[in-house]
């Protein structure tokens, strides 16, 4: 690291923390809603929780694919912002919203189809009836959540993320109230069970998108508010760029992040208690990994801006700072979760589920090791995304997660005394392989001066 880079460390840390923390809080708030959902549904019994966990395996996979496509808005809009092309920034934001609808609507229809399949299996297994009911209530919210993500990616690219963050945080008590009332009933409102929990998720998404649009309309947050200044002529070139970059992103995210829902299906045969323990680890893994997502998004936007403003020789610094932040934060968070793991598991599952709690306590430390590996991977992923290395990430995720991680997870789940613990060991080994390859790729780019080239 040269002297100019050393002098720029703290300003770089500040920028990454400002953007990254905003993204993390937003993403963590969304995942906290699913955490609260787990706590509420667990009160309906093990079969209800198992059913919702199975349903979320499909819902999360659909959402991750939609999220992956619109994530392309961040580097594209950030590069345009670095160039000072505000019209291009607006166009990428608006086309991101249209792409969100294009991608998420067919997936919503597919979720309704899955609900029908689960309903046909409900006579034999109660958990599949619960899965069908949840998907019926939650599926309409998928396009709305994806639109919100598109707006959030636009805000990340322009460095205006905190208003969007505030809306998401404010939605937590709103969802909690809706979920409690619709799930358990109140006065004239009937008890809807797991369907009510899914419906609350959809209504919360509708409220979030509506409030965010109103805020951007009446509060001038240049250039973020420009997303509402619609032009009648469709800008197909920006839409094509988003799809060209976003679809490989989407498959990569589904392949890598989809291992958690896939692992749920692997351990589902061991019964409701094992699924419940896995649900605890999965929710914790999702919430904590949102920190990694924040760092990745911040590095992505920072490097994208540098490329647009022709500051190619400065792009190494965000990577180094991002890796250091990821390591420090992930260790602190993991240690905290492990220390309070018993309280967390009891809160999520309730005192009556003693067997599930015991299993969860054995799984949580492994899940936190998985999180540390994912956190180290995040700034490297953000760097590769900014340089549009989507195909490399796609094939690496396919090899590491599905050709290595999932097979090992399947095998160890059949050998371990706690099946879900063995599965998490397999997932961690898969992520280690991906992280190693990402390190190699970034180092390779730096050593060949591709990161310092005049053009990316």
TrEMBL record:
This protein's record includes keyword Transmembrane helix: yes
Keywords: Membrane, Transmembrane, Transmembrane helix, Transport
Transmembrane segments: 16-36, 48-76, 97-119, 131-151, 163-186, 198-219, 259-281, 287-307, 319-340, 360-380, 392-410, 422-440
GO molecular function: antiporter activity; xenobiotic transmembrane transporter activity
Any single Gene Ontology cellular-component annotation: plasma membrane
Keyword Repressor listed: no
InterPro entries per record: MATE_fam (IPR002528), MATE_MdtK (IPR050222)
UniProt cross-references to PANTHER family, sorted A to Z: FMN_FAD EXPORTER YEEO-RELATED (PTHR43298:SF2), MULTIDRUG RESISTANCE PROTEIN NORM-RELATED (PTHR43298)
Designated name of the protein: Uncharacterized protein
Highest classification ranks of the organism: Bacteria, Pseudomonadati, Pseudomonadota, Alphaproteobacteria, Rhodospirillales
């Amino acid at each position: 690291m040269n002297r100019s880079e050393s002098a720029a460390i703290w300003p770089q840390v500040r920028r990454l923390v400002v953007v990254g923390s905003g993204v993390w809080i937003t993403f963590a708030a969304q995942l906290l809603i699913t955490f609260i959902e787990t706590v509420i549904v667990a009160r309906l019994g093990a079969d209800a929780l198992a059913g919702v966990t199975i349903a979320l395996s499909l819902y999360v996979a659909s959402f991750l694919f939609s999220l992956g496509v619109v994530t392309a808005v961040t580097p594209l809009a950030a590069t345009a912002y670095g160039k000072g092309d505000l019209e291009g920034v607006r166009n990428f934001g608006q086309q991101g919203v249209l792409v969100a609808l294009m991608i998420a609507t067919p997936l919503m229809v597919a979720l309704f189809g899955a609900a029908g399949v689960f309903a046909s299996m409900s006579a034999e297994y109660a958990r599949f009836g619960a899965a069908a009911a949840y998907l019926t209530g939650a599926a309409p919210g998928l396009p709305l959540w994806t639109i919100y993500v598109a707006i959030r990616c636009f805000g990340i690219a322009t460095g205006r993320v905190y208003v969007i963050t505030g809306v998401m945080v404010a939605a937590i008590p709103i969802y909690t109230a809706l979920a409690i009332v619709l799930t358990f009933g109140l006065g004239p409102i009937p008890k809807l069970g797991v369907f009510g929990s899914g419906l609350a998720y959809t209504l919360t998404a509708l409220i979030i998108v509506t409030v965010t649009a109103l805020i951007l309309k009446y509060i001038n947050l240049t250039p973020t508010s420009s997303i509402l200044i619609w032009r009648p002529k469709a800008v197909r070139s920006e839409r094509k760029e988003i799809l060209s970059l976003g679809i490989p992103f989407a498959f990569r995210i589904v392949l890598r992040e989809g291992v958690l829902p896939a692992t749920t299906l692997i351990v589902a045969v061991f019964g409701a208690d094992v699924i419940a323990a896995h649900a605890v680890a999965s929710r914790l893994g999702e919430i904590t990994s949102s920190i990694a997502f924040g760092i990745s998004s911040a590095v992505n936007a920072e490097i994208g801006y540098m490329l647009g403003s022709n500051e190619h020789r400065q792009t190494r610094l965000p990577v180094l700072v991002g890796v250091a932040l990821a390591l420090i934060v992930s260790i602190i968070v993991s240690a905290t979760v492990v220390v309070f793991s018993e309280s967390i598991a009891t809160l999520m599952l309730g005192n009556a589920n003693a067997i599930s709690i015991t299993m969860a306590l054995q799984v949580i430390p492994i899940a936190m090791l998985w999180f540390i590996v994912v956190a180290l991977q995040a700034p490297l992923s953000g760097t590769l995304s900014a340089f549009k290395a989507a195909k490399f990430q796609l094939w690496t995720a396919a090899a590491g997660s599905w050709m290595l991680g999932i097979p090992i997870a399947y095998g160890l789940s059949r050998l371990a005394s706690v099946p879900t613990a063995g599965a998490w060991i397999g997932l961690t080994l898969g992520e280690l392989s991906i992280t190693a390859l990402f390190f190699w790729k970034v180092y390779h780019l730096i050593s060949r001066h591709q990161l310092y080239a005049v053009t990316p």
